[in-house]
C-alpha cells in the first residue's frame, strides 16, 4: 500500500512532485526569463540605449532604482518638514525612566511673614514671549523644550496624535470604565499621595474622618467631571461634591457618570450663572454656597483641573494661564477647611508670577509638592501642585490673591498690561529652599518633556517603531491604584421589585397616583426613609421627575 502522502486525491491523478523535478522547472523558468530579458535589451540597444546610461536621446533618464515613498500621513506630495524626514531611527530606550510606582518630593511649608501685603502686586507689560524666563531653570532646558516643541508646528494633528499614542508607555491605560482620562489622573494622584484625598489623614498619619461622616469635596474648572466621577466611585454614597465650571460645551456631564451615581454631586455656577471663575461675584457666591452646605467649615479637599485651548501659542501657555492659576488657588483657599487638601493642574512654571504663586501656597499649607503623574502625557508641560493640610489662618495670602484678581478684572484683556508679579522677586530669592526646589523641578520635568518630544519625533520619522511596555504598564498601574480591569458600560435600569429584592425589603404591588391630596399627606419628607416612584408601563401620562440632593 502506498503511503497516504502520495495517494492520489479522488478524481485526480496528481502526486507530490519530486525535488529533482522542482529544480528542473526552476531552471526552465530562469532560462525563459533570461531569454525575454535578452530580447528586450536588443530592442533597447537598437534605439540607442547603452548599458549603465539613462533612457532618452540625451540619456537624461534616471539610472538609480526608484526610491520608496517617504510620504507621511496626508501631507501634500513633495512637502518636506525639516526635522521630520522619514528615515530609520534607533531610539535609545534608556533615555527615559518608566516605572509604575512614583515617588513624590515634598517641600515643607513656611510661616507667613508679617509684612505680606497686596502692595507687593506689580503691573507691567502683557508679555507674549517666554524665551528669556530662565531664573527658575537652566537656559539649556528652556531652549531644548521650546526647540523640541517648534518641530511639530507644521505637523498634521492626526499624525501627531498617532505618534504620541504609539510612543507613550502609559497611553493604553486610557479611561477604563470612567467617562474620560481625567478620572484616571485623579486615581493616579490619589494613590501616589497615599489616598490622602479619598481617605484623609491628619498630620499624625491617623484617619481624620469618622466612618459615619460625609467626605465633602469640590471640583472646580473640571467639566465634564472625570475627577468627581472617580471620587464618587471610590466613596460611593459617603461623599458630597460641589462643582464649579463654565456652562456650555465644557459643562459637567452628570448623565455620563456611569461609574457612580451623581445624586450627591451639586453643580454651582456663581451669582451670574455662567460658571466664570474669574468673576469676583461668582467666587464669593460659590464660597458662601459651599460653606453653608458643608457644616460651615468648608470641604475636606478641592480639585482644580482648569485649562483652555492655546493652539498656535503652546510656548506661552503659562503666561496665558496666569489668571487661571491664580483664581483656582484663590477659590481653594476660600472653601477648603483647615487641615484640608488641594490639587491643581498647572503648566510651565518659569515666570516670576508662577514662582510667586508657589511661594504663597507654601505659606498656606503644611507641605506642597509639584508632581507630574504617569497619566499626564510626558510630552506636554502639564503638572500638578499638590498641597497637604491647609493652615488655620490663610487670610493674608487670600487677601493678596483677591486683590490680584481684582487688578486683572480692571485691566481687562485688551489693555496690553497685566499682573506680572505677586511677590517681589527679592522676597522669592530669599526663600532659597523654594528656589532650589522649583528650579530642580523645572529642570527635571523640562528634560523629561524634551526627551518625550524627541521620542514623538522619532516615531513620526520611523513608522516601524512601537512602545513594547504599554500592556505591562497598564496592568501594573491599575493594580497599584486599585482600579479594576473592566470596560465602561451603561448602567442597567432595574424594575422596582428587583431593586427591593436586592435590598432584602418587601415590595408591595399596591400603588397610588401622586395627586395633590396624597402629596399634602406626605409633605414631611424627613418622616420617610425613601420614596419609590415610577410611571406605569402602560401609562400614557407624561411624568417628570426632579431629583435634588437634600444632604
TrEMBL record:
Gene3D superfamilies: 3.40.50.12760. It catalyses: a 5'-end (N(7)-methyl 5'-triphosphoguanosine)-ribonucleoside in mRNA + S-adenosyl-L-methionine = a 5'-end (N(7)-methyl 5'-triphosphoguanosine)-(2'-O-methyl-ribonucleoside) in mRNA + S-adenosyl-L-homocysteine + H(+). Residues 11-31 have a biased composition (Basic and acidic residues). It is an enzyme of class 2 (transferase). SUPFAM superfamilies: S-adenosyl-L-methionine-dependent methyltransferases (SSF53335). One of its GO terms (molecular function) is methyltransferase cap1 activity. It is found in: Nucleus. Residues 36-82 form the G-patch domain. InterPro entries: G_patch_dom, mRNA_Cap_2O-Ribose_MeTrfase, RNA_MeTrfase_FtsJ_dom, RrmJ-type_MeTrfase, SAM-dependent_MTases_sf. Residues 1-31 are annotated as: Disordered. This is Cap-specific mRNA (nucleoside-2'-O-)-methyltransferase 1.
